[in-house]
Amino acid sequence: MITRRSFIKSSSIVGGGLIVGLGVFNACKDKDRLTGGILNSLNSKKGISIGDFVCLQKDGTVFINLCKHEMGQGVSSGLTAILAEELDANWKKVRIVYADPIAGISNSTGGSTSTLDQWDELRKAGAFIRNLLLAAAAQHWGVDKMDCQAENSFIYLKNSRKKIEYGELVDKITLSETLEEPQFKKKDAYKLIGKSFPNKIIPDIITGRHPYGIDVRLPDMKYAAIERCPVFKGTLVRYDATEALAISGVEKVVEIKGKVLDGNTHIRSGLAVIANSTWAAFQGKRALIIEWNYGEKEKIKHEDFVASAFHKLAHEDGREALNVGETPKMQKTDSTFSQTYEFPYQHHACMEPLNATAIYTNNSCEIWTGTQSATYVMAKIEEHMGIPKENIKINCYPSGGGFGLRYWASYALEAVLVSKASGGDLIKMCYTREDDIKCDYLNSYEFNKHTVLIRNDKPISWSLKAAIDNWGAVLGWLYYDISHKYVEEVRINGFTQASAWRSVMANAEGFSTECFIDELAEKLNQDPLDFRLKLLEKDIMVDFNHTYTCNIKRLRNVLKLVSEKGNWGKKMKENSGQGIAVYPYMHGNGYGACIAEVSVSDKKIVIDKITIAIECGLIINPDFVKKQMEGGVIWALSAMFYGGTEYKNGEVLRSNFHDNKVLRIHEIPEIEVHLCESDENRPWGVGEIAPPVTYPAVCNAIYAATKKRIRKLPLEKSMLQ
Amino acid sequence: MAKIQLFVNNKTRVIDVEPTMPLLWVLRDVIGLTATKYGCGIGQCGACTVMIDGQTIRSCSYLAIDAYQKNIITLEGISDDDFHPVQQAWIDEQVPQCGYCQNGQIMNAIALLEDNSNPTDQEIKEHMAGVICRCGTYPRILKAIKRAANQ
Ligand code: FES
Ligand code: FES
To answer: Are residues B72 and B103 located together in one domain of the fold?
Structure first.
C-alpha cells in the first residue's frame, strides 16, 4: 500500500535532479541502485526522476523504466499506457527504457501477472506525478490547484487560454508535506486504456533496432559457446581440446563444473570455447573430444517412466492439494467413471536462442541479457559464486520469446562462470539451436486421472490425481459445481530437467479436465455445452487454495460468449465436428473458452476453425489481448501436432526445427477471437489463457468427427493407435 | 583468412573472413549488422534471411566468400527514411510479438511481392512457409501481406 508518508519519507535530492521514491517502488530502499540507475544518468540535470522508475525531462519526454520483461507479450506498451493514462501524458512523448532491474521491485515476469501486478503501482505513479505537476502549475500561476487540469502533457488553467507543457514544469516541482493521495481517473475518462493503441516497440522491431540480448556488442567482447553434457546431471571425465584450439578464431577452452542449484537452476557440466566470433566458438565446440559420465539419468527408459506413473496413480497415496465437501458414502446404485490423460514433454524453442553477455572482475560482475527474473538471477549468482548482490549489475534486454524458459538463472550464471574461468574476458555466450533444444527445461510430463462418482445421473464427487515429473505441482482447479472434490499428486522421476512452459500445469490440467467433462457429458447423455452450463449455474466464488478465487459467473459468461460466436451445435459436414471447452487460469485470474472445428480423413486431422473467447477483466488494449490469444492458440496447436520429445540414454534426440517442429503459416486454421465484457474494474491475466482451452476443444472436436477419444498428446500418438 | 569485398546495403566493406564462415556471422559479428537473426543455423527457420542480388537467401547457410562482390541487402537497408510499404503494412496490422522472427518474415514478404504483386492466400502461405514464428503472428502476416499488396 502506498501512503503519503511513504512518498515523503523516501524522497531525496540527488545530483541536481529531484528523486522521489514511492513507497510502492521498493527500489527506494536501495539508495545505491536508486542513484546509479540509467534514468538518473538520463536525468541528472535534465529532468526529474521518480525513484529510478519514471523520469520526466525538460523537453517533455517521459521515460519509464520497464520493471517487467518484454518477450513479445506487449508489456512494454501495455504497462506504459497505464502510467501514461493516469499521468495524462502525450502517448507519443512516453519512451520505454530497458534498464537495469530495480533491486527488490517485482520484476519477475510470469503467470500472466505483469499487468495485474503493476496496475496499482503504475496508476499511483502516474497520478502522483500528475498531482505534482498540477501543484507546480498552480503555484506558478498563483491559482488554486482545483482550477488546473491535466491533459495530453499540458496543464491547462480552466476558463482561460493559459497552458503549460509538462517539461516546462520540471524545474518548478516541489515536494511539500501537504501532498494529497492521488485520485485515480474514472473509467469513462480513459483516453488510452481500452483502445487499440499501437505497440511502441514495433517500429524498432521491423527496422532491426529492437535490442535483443543476442545483439549486444561491446568493446573487446569475445564470443563463447558451451558444449554441455547431453545428459542431465552427467559429469565430465576427460577431454581433448587440441583440435578445437586449432580452429582459427578459437582462443581458449575452459571447464564449467556442473551443479544443481535448485529445482530450476542447473549448471550442466561442460566446456566453454571462447573465440573471436560466434561461428568460431560453435566450430570449436564441435571439435572438442569429450568423455562424459552420463550418470543415473541415462538409465531412465520412457516405458518404465510411464509404467511407474500408472503404478503410482493406482497404488500410492498422494500429497493432498484440495479437499472440499463431504466424501459421499458409496451406495449400491452409484457408479464411478474414470479416465487418465497424458500430457507430454514440450520444448520451448524460443526463436532467440538462450544467451547472455557477462564480465567477471574481482568478485563482481555485469551481465547483459533478457531475463524474466533478474532478481532470481542475482540471487543464484550470489549463492553459487559468492558475489554479493550489490556487486552484480544486470542490464535487462527484451527477448525473442521467453515462455517460462527465461524465468530461470542458468544461462546468465553460465555466462558469468565462463567469464570467470577465462580470467575475466567479456564474453557473449550463445546457445546453438541444438543446445537450446537438447538442454531445454522441458514442460513437466504429467498424467491426470479424473474420477467421478455418479448418483442418479449426476456427478456427486470428483477427484483428480496427478502424477507429475520433476517440476511444478498439481493445480487442482476443479470449478464445476460438484459437492465433493479431492485433488492429490504423486511425483515421478523423469529423465531430464523440467520447468515452466507457457500456461504451466494448466496445459495438462485444462486438457484433461475439459476432455474428461466432455466424456462425462456423453456418458450421462447430455449435450457438452448444456452439461457444463448446468454445473456452472450458480454465481459463486470457488476457492482452490490459490491466490485468487474462481469467479464462476465470469467463467460461465465466457463459455456462453464462445458458444454464441462459435455457433455451437451448428450442422457439420461428414467427418467433421465441433468441440468445446472452458477453463479458468487462476495464476492470472483470466478465463477462456474455445470452440474448435475439425475435419478428419484417413487419420489426417485438419483444424478448420478456432473460435476463442477470453474474460480478462478490464482490457488495457483489445488488440494486444487478441494477439496473445491468436499466439496462444498456435502455441497449443504446435504442441498438439508436433509436441513431445524423444530421448535415449538420457539424451534428447530432437535437435533443431526439422525434428522439433512448430506450426508454420500454411498449417494455421482460421482463428477468431472474442473479448468478453466484464464487470471487473481491473485488468487480469491474458498471455496463458488460450492454450489450456485449445487442446480439449480440439480433442473434443476430433471425437465429434471420429468417435475417437484423445487422451494422450501429441495427437499422432493417439491417432495412430 | 581471406580478404573479401562485400557490398552491404550499398556500402562497400572490405573484411577478413574465414572461408568457412557463413554470411550470417559476418554480418552480425564482424560488420555488426544485427537485424539479421540466428534462429537455427540449418536453413529451417528463415530468421537469417537477407537478399543477394534481389533474391532471398538463408545467410546461415551461405558462405560469406560466395557473396564476394554481390549486392547484399539486409533489413537495415531496405528503405532509407520512410518505412518500406511492407514495413508500413506490418505496423498497420501490428504484426510482431517478440519480433525475433520478423526480419525473416519481412524480407521474404518483400521478395514475394516483388515477384507477385497480388498473391492469393495459398501463394502467400507457400512462399512464407519457410519462416517460423514461435509467437504465432501468422494470421497477421497474412493480413499484412495482403494489405501491402493492395497498396
Ligand atoms: S538461422 Fe538461417 S534459416 Fe534459421
Ligand atoms: S514474433 Fe516472436 S517469433 Fe515471431
So the answer is: no
